[in-house]
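To: structure desk
From: M.T.
Subject: fold request, one chain
Message: Could you run this one when you get a chance? Sequence is below, nothing fancy, just the single chain.
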Amino acid sequence: MTSSTVRPRTAVAAITAGPGLAERARAVLPTAAHAFYAAGADEQISAGEAAGAWRSRRLAPRVLRDVSAVDTGTELLGSRLDSPVLAGPTAFHRMAHDEGETATAAGVAAAGSLMVLSSRATRYPEDVAAAAGPWWYQVYWLRDRDLTRRQVERATAAGARALVLTVDAPYVPPRATGGLPLPLPQDDELCRSVGVATRLPGWEQDPSVGLGAIAELGRISGLPVLVKGVLRADDAQACVTAGAAGVIVSNHGGRQLDRAVATADVLPPVAAAVGDRVPVLVDGGIETGTDVLIALALGARAVLVGRPVLWALALDGADGVASLLNSYRSQLETAMALAGAARLDDIHADLLHG
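Reply: Done. Structure tokens follow.
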């Protein structure tokens, strides 16, 4: 992919987490790339409801608590992080920036956070690992299981600390963009290594996959396996029983089943079902640090942000990603202080009104 795919950049204002970021990125992204990143499935109802589900919650702050020093640090599956805001897995970063996922990884590392590298990435895992701090690898269970195994082994050898099995995409439905934009990576070997489904047979997701995939991925890699795409408490329990080291509440950014419930609405029952055994994470429409506070109060241990990272990457590369994640952390610090919570352990459901 050549530099001509992304429009020239001018001086970039500070990147602040918030709902206006997508429009700023639209000015620098190719039209097809922005449309692909932004699109939801079908009528885009689920995609459109995500952010509002967090904004509809109200807080009941505590007073007269010592918040002279606020600490957003956390530990997640052995990785010490500066905040509970992670970069979630998203595809094809080179459509946003010439350095693609390596720039994303560098920005995430600079902010003291963790990146989940998509198996639909446009940079080699080894190159991303060289720029990254702690990172996890997102994987689909593919029709060609040998490809799945080789993909996982390569990520493990490159230093991934966990696998994230995405389970809400047995099929990929048509989206508002009418499919993937062009150009895609032209390097066939790169396609083989990162899994560009439109290039090679066998890269489609296997719709017959069952709970046994969790243990099998753990056996292949020796890594903890989190399951992403869970919206039901009974499914969360089944995944943990089958060996999942964590559960990620997600509706795939509204890109799979339209009218799937907003993640903010199902996080509490999922957290109640399994949160005492494994970390529960959540994504979907988390635009501000106050959204993060609400997610933690609803039972999440950490959150993942997807599209905002792409917008920041498009605007200012690695520096933009770092600026975005630092903004989330700063906003969370302020929200915690005003809510009377000096540490993440102080955030509980009693901070929510109603």
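Reply (cont.): The beta strands are 74-76, 79-81, 85-87, 115-117, 135-139, 163-166, 225-230, 246-249, 280-283, 302-305. Let me know if you need anything else for the meeting.
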